[in-house]
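Human:
I keep going back and forth on a fold encoding question. Comparing notes only helps if you start from a blank page. Show me how you would write down a chain together with its backbone fold. Write it directly below this note and I will take it from there.

Assistant:
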Amino acid sequence: MTLQKKIFIGYGVAVILLGLVIAWSVGHIIAISQTSDVMLHENHKSILAAESMIEALERQENAVLMAFLGSREIGLQQFRKNEVAFLKSLTRAKDNVYVPGESKLLKAIEARYSDYVHNFSQFIELANHTDQSFETRKKLYQEAIAPVADQIRDKCIQLSDTNEDIMYENNLHTNRMADRAVWSTAAVAAAGLLAVVIFSLIISRRITEPLNHLMTAAKQITNGNYAVSVPAKSNDELGRLATEFNQMAAKLEEYNQLNVGRIIAEKQKGEAILKNIGDGLIVFDHALKSTDINPAACDILRKPSEKCLSKSCSEIIPDEKICQRLQTIAETGEAPEADEEESIIAIENSGGKKHYSCSMTPIVDDTNAVTGIVMMLKDITWFKELERLKTEFVMAASHELRTPLGSMGMSLGLLLDNTSDKLDTRERDLLQGANDELKRLKSMVNDLLDLSKIESGQIEMELAPISIHSPIDHVKNSLQAHFENKRVELEVKIPDDIPQVRADADKITWVLTNLVSNALRYVPKNTGRIGIYVKFSEKFVYISVMDNGPGIPEFYQSKIFQKFTQIEGYEPGGSGLGLSISKEIIRAHGGTIWVESQHGAGAKFTFTLATAL
C-alpha cells in the first residue's frame, strides 16, 4: 500500500468519525429543540385557555351580582357575552388535550358550567316575578350559583396548574437530554481526537524516520562521502525514494571517481595559464571580493598575492570608477558603456607612472545570473607615451606653422587688395581660392593647437559657478543672422529652477556654438528646426542640441568624436576637429558627451556639466 493511501485511509476514518459525531449531535439538538418547542407551545395554549375561562367566569359573576341587585338587563347581557368567551376558551382547551387527565377535567368543567348557566337562567326567571321575595333569590344565589362558580374556578385553576407542572417536568426532561447529549458528544469527540492523535504520531514517525536517514546521508554526500546508503524498509513512496537515493549516491560515487582526476588536471592547467599570462588577471565574485589573481596582477598592483585575495575591489584597485563599473556588471550582467579614457587606470611604481587598460567580462551561470567577473589589466604605457609624443609633435608643428601661414595670409591679402584690377577673372579666382584655402589651413592649425593643448593639459579651465542661460543666449545672438538667412526655427527650453553649473563660460560657449553651427549646416533650408533643451538631476545638468537634419549613420556614431572624421556622402564642412575639441573640453569639465541619431531622422548631441551645488 502506498503512503498516500495510508494517510488517506487514516485521516478518512477520522473524518468519518468526526462527521458521525457532528450528525449525531445535530440530531439530538434538533430532537431536543422540537420536543421542547411542541410541549411548551401546547401547554402554554392550555394555560392561556384556563386563564381566559377564569377571567370570563369572574365577569359572569359580576353580571350575576348586577342582576341580583336589580340591573337585570345589563347583568343578563354581560353574562351572555362572557358565556360566549368562556365557551370559546373551553373549546380551545378541548382541542389541545395532550396531558393525561386533562380530558376528564375539561368534561367536568363543561358539566359544571352547564349547571351554572342553567341555575343563572332560573335565577333570572325568579327575578322576573315580583312576587318572589329577596330572601328566595338570595338563597338561590348562595346555594346554586356561587358554589358552582367556585367549583368551575377551581377546576380551571387545576387545569392551569396541571399544564404548568407538565411544562416544568418537560423542562427537566429537556435538560437531562441536553446533558446526556453534551457528555456523549464530548466522549465521542474525545475518542475521535485520540484516534487522530495516535494516527498522526504513527504516520509522522513513519515519515520522519526515513527522512532523517535521507538528511544524514545527504550531509555526508555534501561533505564528499558518496559511499552512503539509506535503508528501504517499505514499498511505498518513502521506500522508493530511499531506493532512488541509493542509486543516485552510487552514480555520484562513480562520477566522482571518474572525473576527479580530470578536474584536477583542468584546474592545474588553468592555474598554469593564469600564472604565465603576461597581462594582469583578477577574478571577483558577485560581492566584488577577489577570489583569484595571477602574479602579473600582483606585480602591477605592487602587492603580494596573500594581500590581494579575499579583498574588496576598493582595497586593491586604486580607482573608484573601475569599482563602480564592476558593481554595475555584478548587478546587471552587462558592462556599461564607457569612454576609452575611463577604462584606463594609472599606477605609480618604481619605474614611474604606468597606464593599464581594464577590460571586464562577467561570468554567468545557466540562468544568466552573474557569479563572478574577470578583469584584465593590459599595459598600454607605451601607447600613452606614443600619444603624448604625437600630441607634442602636433602642438610644436602647429605652432611653427602659424608664423609662415600668417605671412602667407598677409601676402595674399596684399596681392588681392593691390592687383585685383590688373588681373583677369581666372587669375583673380585662383588668387581668391588660394586665400580661402589658406584661411581654412590656418583654422585647422589653430584647432590642432587648441586640441593638443587641451589633451596635454596646458589649457587651464577657469571653472566657476555660472548660469547656463549665459552661453545659450550668446549662441542665439551670435548666430541669429545665420538662422534668419536660412529661415531655420530655433527653440530653447530651460527649466525655471535650473541650478548653476561649475564651468568655464568661454569654453562651454565654444562647445555650444560648434554643436549649433554643425546642426545649422545640415538642416534643410526653410523647414529646418534646431532645439536647445536643458534638464537636470541632483548632480548634473544635461544640455542637448537637437535638429531635423539627415542624421548620422550608425557606423559613424562611435567615431564622430575622433579627429578628422568626415561622413561619406556629406558635404565637408570643417576640419573634422570640432567635435574632438568639444569632447576634450567637456571631459576637462568632468562631464561626458554623446550622440543619439537615426539615419534620416535628425541627430541629438547631449553633454553633461556638474551642478555648482
Remarks:
- The two ends are 78 Å apart (CA to CA).
- The mean pLDDT is 75.
- The chain has 15 helices and twelve strands.
- Residues 325 and 336 are 7 Å apart (CA to CA).
